[in-house]
Amino acid sequence: MSEEERKKFIDNQEKYCKEHNAPFFMAKSGMCWRCERDIIPREIERGNDGSHLVTGCPFCFRSYCD
Ligand SMILES: [Zn+2]
Question: How many angstroms is it from 14 CA to the middle of ligand 1?
């Protein structure tokens, strides 16, 4: 995954939050604060380009909402 893709993902996520008045849950670095894995490539693999809200970690399933 390129830096370009990472940036695009964060941009899309910010846009989503703004449009839906939703909190930005995930870390902007893309790193899960619990398992410390990079969730952005995994989200892209799952078909999320950032335009769907990320509310938890796809690896350790830790919820970012609480
Ligand atoms: Zn995690």
Answer: 20
pTM, entire model: 0.92
Give the confidence band of 66 by pLDDT, cuts at 50, 70, 90. confident
DSSP H stretches of helix in 1-66: 3-20, 39-45
- Give the long-range contacts of residues 45-49, CB within 8 A, separation 24 or more: 49/8, 49/9, 49/12
How many angstroms is it from 39 CA to the middle of ligand 1? 8
pLDDT given at position 2: 93
**43: nearest Cα among 9, 14, 66:** 9
